[in-house]
Amino acid sequence: MNEDDSLMDRVLDFISETAVYESAAAACRIGYAVPGGNSGSLMSFSHLLEKFVHLDFTEDEAIRHWERILLVAQQLERKLGQHVSAYLAIVDYFTSAEHVFDSPVLIEVHVLRKTEELAMLDGLTGAFNRRYMDVALKKELNRSTRYGKQFSLIILDIDDFKRLNDTYGHEVGDIVLQEFSDAARSAIREEDVFCRYGGEEFLVILPETDTSGAYVLAERIRHQLESAAIHETYGITFSAGTVTYPDYADNSADLLRRVDRALYQAKFNGKNQTVSAVADTL
């Protein structure tokens, strides 16, 4: 990748994040101060500077771009007679002033993809969200039924998470959720789907995986967690339940019910272990 391509990719990521940020904050615009004392609808300087630096711009580059974006915003506002969004000002700047892009069409396609991607993710942990989980589970159930394949679910629940929150506060709790998610995702396979089920619970969809394979993967996640900083610092462990289709359940509701009961059994047995749903015992 040459330097121009690298710049283009960084700018595309920046513009996409700006568009998503503005969409989320549409009901309460975040103002900025412009020369002359007027206020507009762009993000604050510190927020934008942080974004630029995060995308490998130097602080000098970030300041230079920001000052020019402000000028473009002012010009557009004078021309249109109204405030303009950060997205509009930045797109105009990088297409008309900096000529990083020949057309805003490429930007629009990239922003659409980024927005769709972020809509599927849990904002805190980066795992797929519950809404996406429901869709993915239905698709895997249909695929496995059609081709006569097995698949399994693992539900993971961080042990004593409420006590951790009460003892150390929600900020530490958020860090634990993030690092737990990272550890789990690093242990699963590329084809597996890792989702935040709710609170401190996560669910993994395992295509073409039997009961023993699901158990092995759950224990691999446990091993990965044991090497994570949150395990050493806070003694974090988790309990897990597994269930396999079509062996022990034949629809989404039963799969979720039985994997949840397997998790409950793991908790009842003393936590920090995996229990697999088998026959009619769970």
Automatic annotation (TrEMBL):
Q: Which Gene3D superfamilies match?
A: 3.30.70.270
Provide the GO biological process annotations: cell adhesion involved in single-species biofilm formation; negative regulation of bacterial-type flagellum-dependent cell motility
State the superkingdom. Answer: Bacteria
Tell me the InterPro entries matching this sequence.
Diguanylate_Cyclase, GGDEF_dom, Nucleotide_cyclase, Rev_trsase/Diguanyl_cyclase
Q: What is its EC number?
A: 2.7.7.65
Q: Which GO terms describe its molecular function?
A: diguanylate cyclase activity
Looking at the record, the residues that make up the GGDEF domain are 149-279
Kindly state one GO CC term assigned in the UniProt record. plasma membrane
Q: Identify this protein by name.
A: diguanylate cyclase
User: Which organism does this sequence originate in?
Assistant: Treponema brennaborense (strain DSM 12168 / CIP 105900 / DD5/3)
